[in-house]
Amino acid sequence: MAELTYRDALRSTLIEEMDRDPSVVLLGEDIGVYQGTFRVTADLLSRYGPRRVIDTPISELGFVGAAIGMAMLGLRPVVEVMTWNFSLLAMDQIVNNAAKVRYFSGGQVDVPLVIRGPNGAGVQLSAQHSQSLEATYAHFPGLYVVAPATPADARGLLRTAIRGRDPVIFLENAALYGIKGEVPDDPEFALPFGKAEVVRPGRDVTVVAYSRMLHLALAAADHLARDGVEAEVINLRTLRPLDAATLAESVSRTHRAVVVQEQWKPFGAAAEIAMRIYEEAFDELDAPIERVTGADVPMPYARTLELLALPAEDDIVRAVRRALGRE
Fold first, then answer.
1. Is the pTM of this model over 0.90?
2. Does the active-site annotation cover 129?
3. Closest CA to 130 of 268, 298, 267, 6
4. Alpha carbon distance, N-terminus to C-terminus of the chain
5. Does the active-site annotation cover 215?
């Protein structure tokens, strides 16, 4: 095992896959000369040249569309969006073309495309640059939606994404790029989509999280353990497909569930996750499912207000206590 930052786990995986497969190419704004806004593509232009590390104009609709065409013709493009908020400008290409070409062609044309970049809030980028858009993309059939929480997740899921046949929405929380964690050295290490991880076993309540919220859930579980509450923490890793079987198995042991998401509460991922638990394990539940979410407001710039708008460890602790009938 090597200890890497989340950023370096992504970068080293890009290098390994570009060395292995010459059809892997990178596109995006400022990924070459500037080396990427969050330095995930640092030095890759000098390593692979401008035919494989392509600086694009500021035109998300254009370069995502170009990447779809490249994928249809046999390349494996990895597009970096400077922030997922800008992907809204390319929604037509993502939703109406990338997600549907294989269906439109009767399975004759694949779109092996990865679109990756920072999602979510927590780094003071204000309302237009701090949105969590996972539920938006998870709504559409034809797309995989991936939300790695750790450096090992980042490596294993990115490798699976690059080697796949279908378009992948790869959501990297902007606040995670600097975190460190152990990453397997195996150059073939990959994680399957649709398989959640039980990160911390417990018997009293199931806490479901993904991306940055996993770290808050684990901190809350430590807090609760001091009060004698054993929380089982699940890292979803992918939202589409969603591993409902692991959620049901966990709830059948703990009989209570709390779902944590960074995004706004209305029509969010937590609502879908909670409903899947109700569908798969209703008879196992001894209490209503609790949701912990971000505040239903545009994200403030001021640090103190941003922190108030984001879910916190204490919010998860209180939700667990409500689920247990202790608050």
1. yes
2. yes
3. 298
4. 42
5. no
